[in-house]
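Researcher: We plan to redesign the surface later, but first we want a full-length starting point. Tokens attached.
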């Protein structure tokens, strides 16, 4: 199913990855594009440029977990494809685990049920590499054991199985994407921020950078525009239906090394860094296996970490647009 001339809905589309996905979808010239976001993490400003450049765009500030509200939205806009990115983030699950689990599973289940009712044709569900837990083999391919170490990760695993159950039982046209750690412009720098915007914010405030644990834990950092572009291409592939597909760079870097790279790019090699106790449930090692995405759409990360960090730092330090 091509996106061109279709009616597309993105839940969580005002967020970091969601807004970049919106940009990638627009390039395919859909008939209409609807974003549903309750602005828990999303921001209206992430979509200002979309409202200015794409005529048939609609931002609906609402809860993607509200079954009846979503039913009305799907009917009103005659949606063909749903990209589901609505989620309660990992750090919130450390504060309120039961609510996070309930909300994440409920959002996904409601969207699947609306698909079973025939209110859209295809679901592209965004999972998370956190579902794998700490790597027991590298690279972490889609057959890596699921060993979630936080309530958030457990909720993503449960949500994935809900999606797969609707595929196997009811024939719902679905695919599941598992992005590794995305970074880039528009990443949330406030509550529940990731390490990259945190480092930049600490520098702006002139306070030491805090790294949890020894800093030797690794992540697979993936530039957000590459993830968004791959997601759109995969959504149009019949061979991706019913599959779980990783999206990452295929490389790992420690938090210590990442921080040093960022400080060097900012000309602050000797900036103070302190270490504190490890975070609960923090995975020790992540490195994505991306062979399936490569096979299906020729996916390969072309933006180096240094290049991506340079653009990201410039955006946060005043080059925002």
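Model: Full-length starting sequence:
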């Amino acid at each position: 199913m091509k996106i061109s001339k279709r009616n597309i809905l993105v839940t969580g589309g005002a967020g970091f990855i969601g807004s970049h996905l919106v940009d990638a979808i627009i390039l395919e010239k859909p008939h209409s594009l609807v974003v549903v976001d309750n602005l828990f993490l999303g921001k209206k400003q992430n979509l200002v440029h979309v409202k200015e450049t794409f005529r048939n765009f609609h931002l609906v500030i609402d809860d993607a977990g509200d079954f009846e509200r979503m039913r009305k939205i799907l009917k009103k806009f005659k949606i063909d494809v749903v990209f589901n990115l609505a989620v309660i983030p990992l750090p919130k699950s450390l504060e309120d685990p039961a609510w996070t689990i309930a909300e994440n599973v409920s959002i996904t289940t409601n969207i699947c049920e609306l698909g079973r009712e025939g209110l859209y044709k295809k679901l592209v569900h965004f999972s998370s590499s956190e579902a794998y837990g700490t790597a027991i083999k590298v690279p972490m391919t889609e057959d890596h054991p699921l060993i979630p170490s936080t309530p958030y990760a457990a909720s993503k695993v449960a949500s994935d199985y809900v999606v797969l159950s609707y595929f196997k039982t009811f024939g719902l046209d679905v695919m599941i994407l598992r992005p590794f750690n995305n970074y880039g412009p528009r990443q949330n720098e406030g509550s529940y921020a990731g390490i990259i915007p945190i480092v930049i914010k600490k520098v702006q405030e002139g306070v030491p950078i805090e790294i949890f644990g020894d800093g030797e834990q690794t992540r697979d950092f993936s530039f957000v525009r590459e993830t968004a572009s791959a997601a759109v291409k995969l959504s149009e592939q019949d061979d991706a239906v019913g599959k779980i597909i990783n999206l990452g760079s295929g490389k790992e870097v420690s938090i210590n090394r990442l921080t040093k790279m960022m400080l060097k790019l900012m000309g602050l090699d000797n900036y103070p860094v302190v270490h504190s106790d490890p975070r609960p449930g923090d995975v020790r090692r992540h490195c994505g296996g991306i062979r399936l995405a490569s096979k299906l759409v020729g996916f390969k990360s072309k933006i180096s970490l240094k290049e991506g960090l340079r653009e990201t730092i410039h955006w946060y330090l005043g080059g925002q647009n």
